[in-house]
Design goal:
This protein is mostly loops. The protein contains 1 helix and 4 strands. The radius of gyration is 26 Å and the shape is elongated.
Length: 132
């Protein structure tokens, strides 16, 4: 009987310690740094290289400023913009791309009358299913 009493007391103590144990929540912090300085915008997926002129449609620009993409996107949650994904390396593009820090050439600006987009995207790297 004494063994049974110790067993019951041990079980009760074990349950008490289990209930009293607090769980720790993980805290993570990711520093994304400064957005790439690209003349015609940067791709919305890592490694966030500079996109060539013609990848983004005119709605991605506010005057001369790119509204951002990926972690640096600073447009509204309802934002939708057109891209020409034929200029995306994930779709096989291997052509010329500008380097970081280059300045945009005014003759390479794409306006709504000359843009040939084929996919609608949000600013966070997701296709919205819409087409230009």
């Amino acid at each position: 009987m004494r063994a049974f009493t110790f067993l019951v007391l041990g079980a009760v103590a074990g349950i008490g310690f289990t209930v009293a144990t607090q769980s720790a929540e993980a805290q993570t912090s990711v520093a994304i740094g400064v957005a790439p300085d690209c003349p015609y915008g940067y791709y919305d997926t890592a490694p966030y290289g500079c996109a060539p002129t013609g990848y983004y449609g005119p709605e991605w620009f506010n005057g001369d400023g790119f509204v951002g993409a990926g972690p640096w996107f600073h447009g509204g949650s309802e934002f939708r913009g057109n891209v020409d994904n034929r200029f995306d390396p994930q779709h096989g593009y291997k052509g010329a791309k500008p380097n970081r820090g280059e300045k945009a050439e005014p003759t390479k600006r794409v306006d709504k009358d000359h843009f040939k987009g084929n996919e609608e995207r949000d600013g966070r790297g997701h296709s919205t299913g819409g087409k230009h």
